[in-house]
Amino acid sequence: MSRILITSALPYINGIKHLGTLAGSMLPADVYARFQRARGRETLYICATDEHGTPTELAAAELGQDPASFCAEQHRVQHDLGRAFGLSCDHFGRSSSPQNHRLTQRFAQTLWEAGFIEERVTQQVYSNADKRFLPDRYVIGTCPHCGYEAARGDQCENCTRVLDPADLLKPRSAVSGSEDIEIRGSKHLFLRQSLFAGKLRQWIEAKRSSWPNLVTSIALKWLDEGLQDRGITRDLEWGVPVNAFEWGPNPEGKTPDIEGLAGKVFYVWFDAPIEYIAATWEWAEARAQEAGRGPAQDAEWERWWRGEEASDVTYVEFMGKDNVPFHTVGFPCTLIGVNERLAADGTWTTVEARPWKLVDQLKGFNWLDYYGGKFSTSLKRGVFMDHALELLPADYWRWWITANTPETSDATFTWEQFQAQVNADLADVLGNFVNRILKFTENRFDGVVPEGGEPGPLEARLEDEVLAKLRELTGHLEDREFRKASTALRQLWVLGNQYLTEAAPWTAIKTDRDRAAVAVRYGLNLVALFAKVSEPFIPFAAEKIALAVGEGFPGRWPALDGEGLLRTLEPGRRVQAPEVLFRKVEDAQVAEWVARFGGAEAA
């Protein structure tokens, strides 16, 4: 059985993430990972904080911290919030790790030696006061379009126009505030992506039938517009150093100008995807340390990523649509480039005996917005993970986000719709069913799974309907169709309520205790089933439900042959109703939250 490798787009280190970030990568990846584990497949879910780049330096400076301390602190915050939301990644790493430094430098050296990286001089802003080149975001000034006086050199946050530092009026350094700046030439390394256009197109076209149209359309648009070479170094202090290792010669016998590259680091969009591999290395190191062994052997983590050892791995990536180009163009160029060479006659040959693995399945998502406007970390608009958990348990948010995953189009969060859906699905359907059958069992059967009676046509129909819906749910999860999966799961819960209404054990017990026992026994087995199949979506409630009927947690995904599907709980087992699983969201709460976070006017 194939192994499943899962990565979700790395959350940026700067700031606590909002619900849109959860919806666009981390939560779907977690649902899928939990499902695959439940099916008994060897699964590795990797994520990490993306820690390099201009915003990190600026945020750290604003707080009076050095970038390393800032990132360590923010990583702990994001790690703890992820766990509180039930995100079950096997390792939550850091792109600033020693492992990522080593791999990034190793890949860059291989690409240089293969002739896929070259040096170029670019014109950039230099601050005489700071004695350094300034990345675009480090240049601020007045927007020439709207007059906003704190526009950045890459974009005006006020009118959203894309800018160049040269466009700004009264430009100044974001570091010192000095206007003593000028344009100078600066040497950088460029990845020659244009050489990979044909190879990439062939690879992407082969994925058309299995990747979402959103993904292939974005990727092919970049190719259709002409794939451009991309600078992979920046004039920053915080990042993976460019000149900290010995470069080999390229096919022309040249080595990089180390002196000209002094003080530069690799661009965050070059090193961040490599962190998927490095985080797997970090995971192996952590396991080795926990087991009291020495450093992890390469084989312990490379078996997920390299050569024949990874031939049984299905690699699945999850990300928002803004990240798609970097994962269908940039990162594949890196991996293809370290695996192969382009000969003078235009033919490609494999040179890496154990090639690094390219993604098999890529799930891209549209935006989740807030009342039709964007969630914004910088503007503090919308609901963020820490505030969400202050208001309600994680399962409320997990359920609503998964049921409204922005797969085929953008989705909108509103407090009113959130209230209506979680009340209807979680409180009225699932919570009501579990509470009804367990309370009745406690009151009329002494809290024990009853024996006696034979199932009839109603139970036969229930088993058929449940099996059909279970197969549908399983298929949607295998296909990573999360909205459809949520709908199928809710319909399963509804079948439970419909069965209880028709079987009516509270009526049958007055004249036919055996008939009531059958209904209760089937109802309790539905509770056990619901715990297993709900776990990927609402793991905290699923655990309470499983424990209520004496089941282990997490359980194995039910077999799809129907054998014994609703006959897993042996008569005589004790059961106990849990505390209220889901309390309804009240109108007063919604009014309070709209006042705090904004409603329609906030967008």
Structural notes for this entry:
The model has no long low-confidence stretch (mean pLDDT 94). Helix 5 packs antiparallel against helix 6 and helix 16 packs antiparallel against helix 17 (539-548). The strands form six sheets. The protein has a five-stranded parallel β-sheet with strand order 3-2-1-13-16, sandwiched between helices. It has a four-stranded antiparallel β-sheet with strand order 5-4-9-10. The radius of gyration is 28 Å and the shape is globular. The protein has helices spanning 19-38, 54-62, 67-84, 98-113, 197-206, 213-224, 268-290, 298-302, 324-339, 385-391, 394-403, 415-444, 457-478, 482-503, 505-508, 513-534, 539-548, 587-597; strands at residues 3-8, 43-49, 91-94, 117-127, 132-134, 139-142, 151-152, 169-173, 181-191, 230-231, 233-234, 265-266, 313-320, 340-342, 348-350, 361-365, 368-370, 411-413. It is an alpha/beta fold and 603 residues long. 45% of the residues are buried. The protein is built from 18 helices and 18 strands.
Quick summary of this structure?
With 603 residues, the chain is of the alpha/beta class.
Which key terms come to mind for this protein?
603 residues, alpha/beta, 5-stranded parallel beta sheet, 4-stranded antiparallel beta sheet, 18 helices, globular
Task: Outline the fold blueprint.
Layout: E1 3-8, H1 19-38, E2 43-49, H2 54-62, H3 67-84, E3 91-94, H4 98-113, E4 117-127, E5 132-134, E6 139-142, E7 151-152, E8 169-173, E9 181-191, H5 197-206, H6 213-224, E10 230-231, E11 233-234, E12 265-266, H7 268-290, H8 298-302, E13 313-320, H9 324-339, E14 340-342, E15 348-350, E16 361-365, E17 368-370, H10 385-391, H11 394-403, E18 411-413, H12 415-444, H13 457-478, H14 482-503, H15 505-508, H16 513-534, H17 539-548, H18 587-597
Parallel strand pairs: 1-2, 1-13, 2-3, 13-16, 17-18
Antiparallel strand pairs: 4-5, 4-9, 6-7, 6-8, 9-10, 11-12, 14-15
